[in-house]
Structures are given as C-alpha cells and as structure tokens.
C-alpha cells in the first residue's frame, strides 16, 4: 500500500486515504491487503471485497457492480456520484464510513462461499 500512497501527490489526499486504510484494517482484520492492476484492494479468502483508486477530484471506491446495484438507494441518499463500477467520494467531503461499511459487509456476507476473485 505504501507505494500506492506514495504516488498520491496531494498530502491531504494521501492522509485521508491512509486514515481510511487504517480504519479498514482495524474494523476488518481478517481482510488481506493486495495491490492488483496498480490499485489497493482488500480480499477475503482470495475473493475481491473492495478496491480503491485516486484522482485529482475524488477517491474512487470499487465494490463491484453487483454491490453498487444492491446499495444504489444508499449511494443516492448519501449524494455520491457513481457509475456501474465505482462510487466517487469527493476529497473535499468526509469519508462516508457508514456507506463504506455497508459495501464491505455486504461483500463479505454475499461472497462468503465465492471461490473466484470476481463474482461470476
């Protein structure tokens, strides 16, 4: 994760991302941290749970399109811009840990018996 974080130019953005990763590590110690396709991800028993990327305007949270569809009402209520594959958390706003927790919890439970990295 350090190489990824080191590539974030804005120190405030890097600090926010570090805080979020620390929160995930503390809340979900069973998850493994990996870097794939140059992006930090958290996995559970070898299956993808959530991934992240950074742009100038936002932190992109990628929980898989299935999860976005399932939590679409929560994402809309929270006021976030999103696509089929990611939710944009603006740097200027606090991280929505409640929404992040819903995404992670949903994926952990719904992928408990998943034997592949991505959903099939």
TrEMBL record:
YdhG-like domain ranges (all copies): 13-108
Superkingdom assignment: Bacteria
InterPro entries, per database record: YdhG-like
Pfam families: DUF1801 (PF08818)
Protein known as: Iron chaperone
Organism field: Paenibacillus septentrionalis
């Amino acid at each position: 994760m350090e190489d990824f974080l080191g590539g974030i130019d804005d120190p405030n953005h890097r600090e926010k991302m570090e805080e979020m990763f620390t929160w995930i590590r503390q809340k979900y110690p069973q998850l493994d941290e990996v870097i794939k396709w140059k992006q930090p991800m958290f996995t559970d028993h070898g299956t993808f749970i959530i991934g992240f990327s950074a742009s100038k305007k936002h932190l992109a949270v990628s929980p898989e399109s299935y999860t976005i569809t399932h939590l679409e009402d929560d994402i809309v209520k929270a006021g976030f811009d999103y696509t089929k594959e990611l939710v944009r958390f603006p740097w200027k706003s606090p991280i929505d840990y409640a929404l992040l927790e819903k995404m992670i919890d949903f994926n952990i439970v719904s992928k408990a018996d998943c034997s592949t990295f991505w959903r099939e």
